[in-house]
Amino acid sequence: MSVQDDATFTLSMSLPMERRLQVALFVCPGFFLPDNIGLQTVFGTLPNVDLHLVWKNRDEITGVPRFTTRATTSFSDCPKALDILHVPAIPPHIMEDEESLAFLAEAGGRAAWLSGVCAGSLMLGAAGLLKGYRATTNFHLHDQLAHYGAIPTRGNVVEDRNRLTSGPVSGGFDLALRLVGRLYGDAIARECELEMEYAPEPPYGTGSPELAGPELTARSMQRMAPLIEATRQVGARASRRLGLA
Length: 245
Description:
Strand order of the largest sheet: 5-2-1-6-7-11-10
Helix content: 25-40%
Radius of gyration: 17 Å
Oligomer: single chain
Number of helices: 8
């Protein structure tokens, strides 16, 4: 089962899009909704896309911030041949959930494209899917990519072979549009960007450590310290589990 097409919000492209895509977005209790929104918006408004929200079951789950939803597809029912498998930021304990890791390792090994936004990149790494790949995540956790055998690389979106990773929120839209370009060509991706009027103009210009400066960045790191440490401990255990430590 997938999120069904709604003709009201399906974009009509000037070029044919006859190929039907299977796109799976990982969800779980505590997942960070904004990191899925980019993919869900871009691919959910394209014709001929089966969009799956995937979790262990289809019980009601609560995401962050204050978002209640249900998966549309269970791990066992997820299509075997995925064009895209995408992971948003998730709580640290999910990064050690054996059933989730097994699903991602298996499905990710077959998927044509893998993508992760924010801590979703670390989840891909925890499933053993980033060894030897350049990758990025949000700046609070960037150095932790090394726990998973990834090559930490700065950039809004980092693409290495069939893996795309990005920072949070707007990075998910940038990543999604890149994937449209890879799967359908640049002309379709340009149309999608225009139809969404995707032209961010941040009001304060502090959306990265380089822009924000050291003082504001230090305060942000301090506020996030408990989460950073919890995630670091998970990464250290994962490094031993993956035979990297």
